Amino acid sequence: MGPETVRMLDLGHPWIIADSYTNRWPAGSAGEIIELMDASGQFLATALLDQGERIIARVLSRERMRLDLTWIKGRLEVALRLRRDHLDLGDTDAFRLVNGEGDGLPGLTVERYGDFLMLQLYSAAWRPHLKSLTRALQELLSPRGIYEKSRPRNTRDLESAGATKSYGRLLWGVAAPERLEVRENGLKFLVELERGLNTGLFLDQRESRRDLMRRAPGKKLLNLFAYTGAFSVAAAGAEAELVTTVDVSPAYTDWARANFGVNRLNPKRHEFIVGECLGALADLSRRGKSYDIILMDPPSFSTTTKGRFTTRGGTSDLVAAALPLLTQGGLFIASSNHQKVDVADYLKELRRGALQAACDLRVISLGGQPADFPYPVTFPEGRYLKCALCVKTPI
Fold this sequence. Notes:
This protein is an alpha/beta fold. The protein is 28% helix and 30% strand.
């Protein structure tokens, strides 16, 4: 391996990025176990090969090992113990059990949805080991069923079909209902384990929704890029006076209404808008609307017939359009899961938007993902979620 790769390994990074040195590796197949050596032939780590990909190998251990059922169960047991010791779930049965590199199983996640488990493979290298993974999960957790949801290589091109196409399949056990009811913070949410790129509930925002519930009573809330309305349900369930839910997808908006329904929350008491967010903000401004809390949790990248949103290119414009609708002293909650935008750069986007709107934002809290989404200190890419709670003040 090249000197830069060796240096990154010495720093504890779990990825081997393809370069001119790895191009000279002998041919291998995805899922093959390889031993990484430095220029002098000294052993460095055991890794999982994914030849032909940008991340050509992922480090499994700094020791020699075999990727068998015993090893997998050992890693899973450590992950489960971390959650038992450090995760405050309350009345919640949907959470992440394995967070890839953060649990020593790089390129793999496992989530629990009630009595069912969902595996997601972010590397084809895990596919030859699916049987062992499934068996280990059966023995340790006794789920009713285990699903796998595939991750297409170019998610951007498939987003338009993401709500209807089936990316999940049952690996073992009995099939879940088409829409499965799970609990989070005492509320109910409907998830889909087969259809769509995602299940309908982003588990990494659980604590943000819990925090919103204590702030929402009696308030008017605007939820932008609402997806299936989880934040809207959290606010309405906490007796917000009005929740306005905005998303460009009619299918996701109907799903949001269904989430209101399973919680016996009357959707007619609130407002649902199907439309692109900047256009919706302009319309709400013309109507003289104002809100005590505005929340934006957009995808890193999205396209619609009317335009395109990226975290780097669109955040400041969105903030500038939203802030005039926020009451003085109101709460602005902004989140991003864009891995390549760090906290400092994200705050700069919020600053640009605030300056455009001729007001100030005071950050009162800056959070990230919860304890079931751990990451190694040697892997900065693992800290992807940024959630800023800001108060609007005059300049």
